[in-house]
Design brief:
Blueprint lengths: L2 H4 L2 E9 L3 H9 L1 H7 L2 E2 L8 E5 L9 E10 L3 E8 L2 E12 L2 E11 L5 H22 L3
Antiparallel strand pairs: 1-7, 2-3, 3-4, 4-5, 5-6, 6-7
Helix pairs in contact: 2-3, 2-4, 3-4
Length: about 140
């Protein structure tokens, strides 16, 4: 392990959602639902599947995130790489059933520091995205 790998940082966000894991799973694995809360995409929940997330480009960023599915454990665990602007991290969703719905744990690992613009941007972005994810799950049958 290199020193730089040992020095990476992980963003962790946890939420209690009043929806069963099945609804949250659908929202994080079905392309049309992902588009509603995250970005346009060609995602498929299959290990090794490469995909792209697409957002509106801004100065210094082309709006594209390249990913590859790493882990799929239905209604429990999903992880994929998240590569943009020369940095690659890993996003992991862990779903745990609770009496009231689902405990969602999101981790994004691989940041160079907690002061990096990548970490700060992810921290802000995921808070917004997860709020939208909950709205999408609420609308599912």
């Amino acid at each position: 392990m290199t020193d730089s790998a040992a020095a990476t940082h992980t963003l962790v966000i946890e939420r209690e959602l009043p929806h069963p894991p099945e609804k949250i799973w659908r929202a994080i694995t079905q392309s049309n639902l992902i588009e509603q809360w995250l970005m346009k995409n060609d995602f498929e929940p299959a290990v090794g599947r490469a995909f792209k997330l697409r957002s509106t480009p801004v100065p210094g960023w082309d709006g594209v995130i390249d990913g590859e599915v790493v882990t799929v454990e239905s209604q429990r665990l999903l992880s994929y790489t998240w590569a943009t602007m020369g940095m690659t991290s890993v996003v992991t969703f862990t779903l745990t059933p609770t009496a009231a719905g689902t405990h969602l744990r999101l981790e994004q690992s691989g940041f160079p520091s907690t002061d990096s613009p990548y970490y700060k941007g992810a921290s802000y972005g995921w808070q917004s995205f997860l709020g939208k994810l909950e709205q999408v799950a609420a609308g599912l049958e």
